[in-house]
Amino acid sequence: MGNMDRRAGGGVALGRRAVLGGAAAVGAAGMLGAGRALAAQDVQLPFANGMRPVAPAGMFPGKGEMILQRVRAPLLETPWEVYRKHLFIPNDQTYVRWHIPDFPTSIDVKKYRLRINGDVAHPFELTLDELVKRFPAVQTAAINQCSGNSRGFIDPRVPGAQWGNGAMYNALWTGVRLRDLLAHAGVKPGATHVAFHNIEQLIDPIPPHALFYKVLPLARANDESTLVAYEMNRSELPLLNGFPIRLVVPGWYATYWVKMLTEITVTTHPGTGFWMNPAYTIPDTPNGSMKPGETGLKMVPINAMDPRSFITSLVSGETIPAHKPSVLRGFAFGGGSALKSVAVSADNGASWKDAALGKDWGAYGSREWHLPFTPGKPGPVRLMVRASNAAGAVQPMVAGWNPGGFMYNAIEHVDVQAV
Ligand SMILES: Nc1nc2c(c(=O)[nH]1)N[C@H]1C(S)=C(S)[C@@H](COP(=O)(O)O)O[C@H]1N2
Ligand SMILES: [Mo]
């Protein structure tokens, strides 16, 4: 146990307090909203059949007001207003996505174990306290984005959660490097993949083929950015976002970010479970894009994200004074590689102006942008925003299409009126 005495720095005091602070106990009935009236309030997501109820603060444990996509298993969307106010999304308003209806509504942190096994020389297991104390703590900003974020905008529409843009959040993650855990176990030569299991399998008679487990290529698991995280925005993880520990795979879609992680198994197998294949696969084409109805394409597991950018200082329908200087603002991220540039067009994409970028939180986090803008003559103005990343990906005018409705990243716009 080479790391036995090593104490991690900075975030760990918080981590220990959070992890040792006791069980996150929640009544099952309260959690699932049974017997609680929904709010009288609705919100209209900007697509056909986009009307959704708003879940009031407290309907779900640890969560404020959220757009209610589904009660069980919970699908909760972050209201757009939240992104207008925060670059790091507060823990009580980060979106929530579970696949399997029965997952624990309380966690006994004393009994919780993380096992590392499979094709390794020294399988081992850790209590949460050991995980925090024995391995160095790392902090990184990263976007958690559902593969199906913005699915409601995909044309032609496809089945699945009809999210608006609220199935993403930028957060500061604290945890240990997965590769430190793997190195400690000693990965055997010939291993190619790492499988991640979670607590759901322990509590429910789920048929094995339906278990939610995910598999990463060994190289991605060993990337220095991949973490087993125990804090989000310097607090313990909200129960619904994976308390007490989850996988964080910066730059890759959140389907790999296994919550309530219990077991890490090194293997020679890419994984056959439903949630690896056929679910969460994309055509092996640029941007995972194909024509509706096209056949014969090779399907591969979804992987790195594409760049996206948003305007937050204005929303469609607002009026702005003509001829008066103002500053446009928003946020952007690069996806699988660092954000390179953000540009704005006020003439339907004929010309673009580069925006200034705010603080760089690292390749995988969100970044603010701003650009001075003076509307010309009175009348309608469409403002578009477009991001590009270090790998050369640029947001397209029209989103790609695939049957899963994944990877939507078209150029966003707001329609305002200069008066
Ligand atoms: N244990 C577990 N982990 C999971 C899932 C799940 O259903 N169970 N869903 C995955 C998917 S598809 C997404 S989009 C993210 C959502 O993370 P969040 O709930 O923190 O937003 O969790 C991932 N990790
Ligand atoms: Mo997802």
List key phrases describing it.
419 residues; mainly beta; Sulfite Oxidase, Chain A, domain 2; Immunoglobulin-like; 2 domains; five-stranded mixed β-sheet; 7 helices; binds ligand MTE; binds molybdenum atom
Name the poorly predicted regions: 1-38
CATH architectural name of the largest domain: Alpha-Beta Complex
Counting DSSP E segments of at least 2 residues, the number of strands comes to: 28
Could you give a short account of the major beta sheet? 5 strands, antiparallel
Average pLDDT taken over every residue = 90
Radius of gyration: 22 Å
List the total number of helices.
7
- Count of spatially separate domains: 2
List the strand order in the largest sheet. Answer: 2-3-4-5-6
Overall morphology = globular
- The CATH homologous superfamily of the largest domain is termed Oxidoreductase, molybdopterin-binding domain
Terminal-residue CA separation: 69 Å
Portion of residues in helices?
A: 10-25%
What ligand molecules are bound, each kind once? the ligand Nc1nc2c(c(=O)[nH]1)N[C@H]1C(S)=C(S)[C@@H](COP(=O)(O)O)O[C@H]1N2, molybdenum atom
What is shown here, in short?
By secondary structure, the chain is mainly beta. 10% of the residues lie in helices and 32% in strands.
Summarize the structure in words.
Strand 23 and strand 24 (353-354) form a beta hairpin. The radius of gyration is 22 Å and the shape is globular. It has 7 helices and 28 strands. Helices cover 10% and strands 32% of the residues. With 419 residues, it is mainly beta. It has 2 domains: 1-279, Sulfite Oxidase, Chain A, domain 2, CATH 3.90.420; 308-418, Immunoglobulin-like, CATH 2.60.40.650. The chain has helices at 12-20, 28-32, 80-85, 128-134, 178-185, 200-203, 218-221; strands spanning 24-25, 42-44, 51-55, 66-70, 75-77, 96-97, 106-107, 113-118, 124-127, 138-145, 168-177, 193-198, 214-217, 227-232, 235-236, 246-248, 261-267, 281-283, 299-301, 308-311, 319-320, 326-333, 339-345, 353-354, 356-357, 367-373, 379-389, 412-418. The strands form 7 sheets. Strands 2-3-4-5-6 form a 5-stranded antiparallel β-sheet, with no helix packed on it. Molybdenum atom binds at residues 97, 146-148, 254-255.
